[in-house]
Every structure is written in C-alpha cells, then in structure tokens.
C-alpha cells in the first residue's frame, strides 16, 4: 500500500520508492540518537551562557571588573550575531587545530551551537528580565533580599514566563540547525541523508524525505510548545 502511494507521486519510480523506504529508518534513528540530543545539550549549555550574559548586562554597572565583563559580552554578542553559524562551527572544528586545540566532532558542534544560542538567547532573556516592573526589585530589597535573592525568587519566575515562547522557537530553530553539524562530520540526520543520496546518486527524493522528517519532528515540537504556553497562561491567570 505504501509503495503504491509513493508511486502515485509524479517523479517517483520503483527504484526511488525502494531508496526512500530504505533511507527512512536510518534518518529517523540519526534524528533521535544524534540530532535531538545535540540540540538539547547545546540548548541547555547555551541557556546557561545566555542567563550569565543577560545578568551582566542588566546588573547596574559597579566597578572596573563589571565594566570589563560588559565590554566582553557585548563583543561576544556582536561577533556571534555578525557571523554565520556555519563559520562558527567550522572555526571550532577546523580552525582551532591550528592552535594545537583538537576537538572531536560532536563536542565541537555542541560548542559552536551553544555559543550561538548563548548570544541570541541572551537578548531574549535580557528583554524578559527588563519587562518585569522595577517595583518588583524594590519590593525584594525592601524585605531585606540581596540582588541575587531578589532575582532568583521574584524576578526570574516572572521573566521565565515571558521568555518561554521565544525560547521555544529558538530551540525549534536549533533542532533544524543541527543539520549544519554534518559539515564537521557529525553523523546526524542530514549527513545520513547525504550519505544515502551519494550512494544512489539520486538526491531529490532523499532530500525531500529528509525535509519531511524534519517537518514532522518540528510539528511535534510545535505541539509541545503550544501546550507549554497554555499551561504558562493558566499559571499566570491564577
């Protein structure tokens, strides 16, 4: 039945149908075992960087060391936002060996993705923190809380609710961007698609299939995102 359905597509032939079917599970397996873990680990590390960078930027300037950190994070954000992610990953994997630093493909990809997410997500986190009324900070100080206690107990929960939708979109975008890891020889889903296409010299059906698989995974993430946002709305309403 599946064969007949695929054969009904104008450009499909029996050989292409066999190719698409044989490539399906290897690509799905690579997505589950490599692409998703790569996206999750990079996102977690990136968020740690983003929160740290955002705190440096929203904290009132105090002293030379803080000013130095402020300059460093601004330069970091400017470099990451001003260069393609492909270049960033390539520098980590292919460029650092020139300095005697050798990093395996998966850690190199994680470093590249994390640095990229850290820069972009820091702007989202900073905006979310800034959206909390200043009176909330003053309320924390009034009851004797320190800056970090006020941030952790009062500001962060409110900022988190604001940041959830854009950060969810950032994660979905990161999952799609894991295809760039193929450049540094990580055998994620798109690299498997490339390998299957190279063996058959028939690229169109494989790449279309890869695109559909990415779309299916992203659709699941969209559904999860919608449910998380609804729960956050209910929580805020209470």
Task: Summarize the model shown.
The protein contains 9 helices and no strands. With 238 residues, the protein is mainly alpha-helical. The N and C termini lie far apart (51 Å).
What do you see in this structure?
Keywords: Amino-acid transport, Cell membrane, Membrane, Transmembrane, Transmembrane helix, Transport. It is found in: Cell inner membrane; Cell membrane. Pfam families: BPD_transp_1. The protein is mainly alpha-helical and 238 residues long. The protein has a single domain, classed as MetI-like (MetI-like fold), CATH 1.10.3720. The protein is built from nine helices and no strands. Helix 7 runs antiparallel to helix 9 and helix 8 runs antiparallel to helix 9. It is elongated. The N and C termini lie far apart (51 Å). The model has no long low-confidence stretch (mean pLDDT 88).
Classify the fold: give the CATH topology.
MetI-like fold
Radius of gyration: 22 Å
Continuous helix count? 9
Q: Looking at the structure, what is the overall shape?
A: elongated
Subcellular location: Cell inner membrane; Cell membrane
Keywords: Amino-acid transport, Cell membrane, Membrane, Transmembrane, Transmembrane helix, Transport
GO biological process, one term: amino acid transport
Membrane topology: Multi-pass membrane protein
